[in-house]
C-alpha cells in the first residue's frame, strides 16, 4: 500500500508542478491587497474593539445585482491571498490558485471572489497581512494590546467579514468556501447569516472541536507560553518569543503533513550522526529541515496572535449555541464537505459528525473525501482532484 | 463506523475491567524490585559511564538449564513493572499483567520472565524506578551529571540488559517481547545478540525511525527546553522545569490515544465557557483533564531524562549500522510484529517496513494488527486480543 501511495504522490507532484508551471508562467491573475476599517466592534464575548482593520482582496467582477459573490475564508496559518499574484514575478500564487481563476472550478469569469485576513491573523508582521489583534496598538494606551485584546471566536471572524461585505453593499453569498479554520468560518457563516448564504463548502473541516483536537491545539500554545521572552504576553518592548514561535510553527508543519509526503521531502535520517551523539541538544539534518523554515517564518508571526488563534479554534462549536445540533439547525445553505482521507490533524470523522447531524435534520449534505498523501495539506495541494465536484456544486 | 467503534470500546472496557477485577482480586502475583550495578560501561557512542545501576524484577522460576528466559523491554514512559503487584493492596498490577502470569499468554509456570528499567528512564523520581542518567550523581564531581551524561541509544539499553543477564548466567533468551520503545529494544536484541535470541515480538513498534516520527519526537523535547527552569540541563540545585515536563507528558498522553477513546473519557467541550473567553491563558475542563494527571506525574519525571529518551528513540535504526536492511540481515530469531491499526504515534507502516524487509531477506516474519480504539495504547490495553497469537508464537 505504501508503494502505491508513493507512486500516487509522485504522480501528484508531477501533475501539480506541471499545473503550477503551466498556469503561473502563462498569464498570472494580478491582484491587489486592500484594507477595510470599521469601529466599535463588539465581540461574541461582549468586549468592544475600538477599531478593526483587516486586509482583503478579490478576483473577478462584482455584478450589478451584487449576487455573484463567493467568499473564501482562510486557514490557520493563511491569509486573504487565495489566488493570483501581487506581482508578475511573485514566486508563488495564492494558495488555491489551482481552483480560483478564469475558467477554473471557482470561475472568476462568472463570480466575484473575495477573501479577507481574519482578526488575530498568525502572521501580522508579514507585509502582505493586514489584521487587528494583540500586536495592534490599543488606542486607549498607545501601546500594543498584548493580552488585553479580547478573546475572539470563529464567529467574530465571520462578523468582521460581514461588516466588510456590508460596506460593499453585498447582502447575498452565492457560496462561502474555506479550508481547515476557513471551513469553520464557512460553516459558521451559514449559521450566523443563514439567509445570506446559498452554498457552503467545508474543506478539511469540522462541525465542532472535540476534546482530542482541543488538546492537540493546546500543544501548539505551550512552546510560546514556556518561552521566557513571552513574558505573559508583554514583549512588544523587548525580544519576541521567537524560539517558542518557531517550535509552534514546526509542530503545525509536521502535524499538517502525512508521514508519506514528509518522508519523501525530508532528508533521510542518518545512522549514528556524530553531532546527535554528542549532545541531546544538537540538531540533525531531519530536524534542521523542519525547523529552518519555521525559524525563517517566525519573525513574521506573533506569539500572542498564535495563542488567540488556538483559543478561537478550541472554542469552535458551529453556531456557538448549546450544541452542534442546535447550531446546524439554522443552516439553510446547500452544503458540501470535503475532508481528506489521510488527514491526521482534522480527521474525517469531524466532518462526518456534521454531515450525520445535517442528514438527521433532513438536509442533504454532500460528502466526498480528498485522497492524497499530504495529510491535512491535501485540502490545499490535492484540491484539484475535487475541481469538478466543486464546480458542479457551485454552478448548479 | 464511529458508532461501531464506540460499541467496541465499551465492550473492551467491560472485558478489561472484568479481567482486571477477576485477576487482581483473587490472587495477585507478588513481585519485588531488585537492583543491578556494574561499572565502566562504554556506550555505543564511545563514552564511559563509570557506574550503571538499573532496577529489575522477575516472574516465574529460572530453570536449571537457564533456557526458559523471556525478557520484557519497556516503553517510553514505562518501567520494569510489567506484571504482578509489589503489595497485595496495590491499586494496579504491572502494565501487561493481562498476558504475563501463571497460565497466561506468557506463562510464568513455564518461563522465567524478567524485565529491567532502562538507562535514562523517564521517571527517575518514581520510588519504583531504579535508573542511571543525567539526574544521577556523577562520581567525578559528586553532582548530578546533567547534560554531561553521554547520549545513549536503544543499543545501550540492550547492552545494559545483557550485562544483567550475564550476571545471572543467562546466555539464551527463549523470547524478547516489548511494546513501543520496548519493541525497538526487542528488535535490537535480535540483531546485537542474534545467537542468544530465539523469538522476538515487536508490539506497536518500528524497525527504524522515519523523518516524520523523528520530528514528532522532537516536539516532546521542546516544552522542556523552553522552560526557563531547565537552564540548559543544569537545574538540580534549583527548581525543576516542571511546567515544561507537564506539557511534554500531556503531549505524550494525547498522542498515544485515539480520538474515540479520548473523547469518551474527557469532559464534553463546553459551549462558550466564560473563563476561556476571558483569557487565552485560562483553562477549560477538557484541558484540566489532560494536564491535571500530567502535572501530578511531572515531579516523578526528570526533564533531562525525557530529552535523553527522545534522542535515543530519534536515533533508532535497528542494528545502528548503515541502514535497516543491513541491521535486519543479522536477525536469526523468529519474529512477530503486532502494530495497532489505529495507532497515530507509531503507525503500522513502521512495523510493515521491517516486515517487508525481513520477507525480502527470505525470513518469515509474522504480522497481525491489534484492533481497538485506544490508538498507540492498544499495545497495552487491547493486548488480550492477541493473547492466543502470542502464546502460540512463544510456545511452538
TrEMBL record, chains A, B:
<dbReference type="InterPro" id="IPR000073">
    <property type="entry name" value="AB_hydrolase_1"/>
</dbReference>
<comment type="subunit">
    <text>Homodimer.</text>
</comment>
<keyword id="KW-0963">Cytoplasm</keyword>
<keyword id="KW-0732">Signal</keyword>
<keyword id="KW-0012">Acyltransferase</keyword>
<comment type="similarity">
    <text>Belongs to the AB hydrolase superfamily. MetX family.</text>
</comment>
<dbReference type="InterPro" id="IPR008220">
    <property type="entry name" value="HAT_MetX-like"/>
</dbReference>
<keyword id="KW-0808">Transferase</keyword>
<keyword id="KW-0028">Amino-acid biosynthesis</keyword>
<feature type="signal peptide">
    <location>
        <begin position="1"/>
        <end position="22"/>
    </location>
</feature>
<dbReference type="InterPro" id="IPR029058">
    <property type="entry name" value="AB_hydrolase_fold"/>
</dbReference>
<dbReference type="Pfam" id="PF00561">
    <property type="entry name" value="Abhydrolase_1"/>
</dbReference>
<feature type="active site">
    <location>
        <position position="343"/>
    </location>
</feature>
<protein>
    <recommendedName>
        <fullName>Probable acyltransferase</fullName>
        <ecNumber>2.3.1.-</ecNumber>
    </recommendedName>
</protein>
<dbReference type="GO" id="GO:0004414">
    <property type="term" value="F:homoserine O-acetyltransferase activity"/>
</dbReference>
<feature type="domain" description="AB hydrolase-1">
    <location>
        <begin position="148"/>
        <end position="358"/>
    </location>
</feature>
Amino acid at each position: 500500500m505504501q508503494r502505491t501511495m508513493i507512486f500516487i504522490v509522485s504522480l501528484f507532484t508531477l501533475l501539480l508542478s506541471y499545473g503550477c508551471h503551466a498556469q503561473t508562467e502563462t498569464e498570472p491573475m494580478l491582484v491587489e491587497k486592500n484594507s477595510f476599517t470599521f469601529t466599535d466592534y463588539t465581540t461574541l464575548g461582549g468586549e468592544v474593539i475600538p477599531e478593526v482593520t483587516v486586509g482583503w482582496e478579490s478576483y473577478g467582477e462584482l455584478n450589478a445585482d451584487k449576487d455573484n459573490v463567493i467568499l473564501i475564508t482562510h486557514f490557520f496559518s493563511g491569509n486573504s491571498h487565495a489566488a493570483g499574484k501581487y506581482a508578475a514575478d511573485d514566486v508563488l500564487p495564492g494558495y488555491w490558485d489551482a481552483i480560483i481563476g478564469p475558467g477554473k472550478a471557482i470561475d472568476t469569469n462568472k463570480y466575484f471572489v473575495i477573501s479577507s485576513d481574519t482578526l488575530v491573523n498568525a502572521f501580522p508582521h508579514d507585509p502582505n497581512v493586514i489584521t487587528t489583534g494583540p500586536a495592534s496598538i490599543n488606542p486607549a494606551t498607545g501601546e500594543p494590546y498584548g493580552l488585553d485584546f479580547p478573546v475572539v471566536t470563529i464567529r467574530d471572524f465571520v462578523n468582521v467579514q460581514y461588516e466588510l461585505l456590508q460596506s460593499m453593499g453585498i447582502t447575498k453569498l452565492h457560496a462561502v468556501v474555506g479550508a481547515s479554520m476557513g471551513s469553520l468560518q464557512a460553516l459558521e457563516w451559514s449559521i450566523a447569516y443563514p439567509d445570506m448564504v446559498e452554498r457552503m463548502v467545508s474543506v478539511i473541516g469540522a462541525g465542532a472541536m472535540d476534546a482530542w483536537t482541543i488538546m492537540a491545539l493546546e500543544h501548539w500554545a505551550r512552546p510560546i507560553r514556556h518561552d521566557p521572552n513571552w513574558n505573559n504576553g508583554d514583549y512588544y518592548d523587548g525580544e519576541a518569543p521567537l524560539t517558542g514561535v518557531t517550535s509552534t510553527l514546526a509542530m503545525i508543519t509536521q502535524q499538517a503533513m502525512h508521514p508519506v509526503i514528509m518522508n519523501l521531502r525530508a532528508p533521510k535520517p542518518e545512522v549514528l550522526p556524530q553531532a546527535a551523539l554528542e549532545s541531546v541538544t544538537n540538531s540533525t539534518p531531519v530536524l534542521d529541515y523542519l525547523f529552518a523554515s519555521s525559524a525563517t517564518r517566525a519573525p513574521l508571526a506573533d506569539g500572542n496572535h498564535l495563542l488567540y488563534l488556538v483559543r478561537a479554534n478550541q472554542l469552535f462549536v458551529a453556531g456557538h449555541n448549546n450544541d452542534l445540533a442546535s447550531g446546524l439547525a439554522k443552516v439553510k445553505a446547500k452544503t458540501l464537505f470535503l475532508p481528506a482521507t489521510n488527514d491526521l490533524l482534522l480527521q474525517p470523522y469531524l466532518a462526518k459528525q456534521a454531515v450525520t447531524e445535517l442528514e438527521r435534520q433532513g438536509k442533504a449534505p454532500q460528502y466526498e473525501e480528498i485522497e492524497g498523501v499530504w495529510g491535512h495539506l491535501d485540502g490545499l495541494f490535492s484540491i484539484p482532484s475535487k475541481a469538478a465536484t466543486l464546480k458542479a456544486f457551485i454552478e448548479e
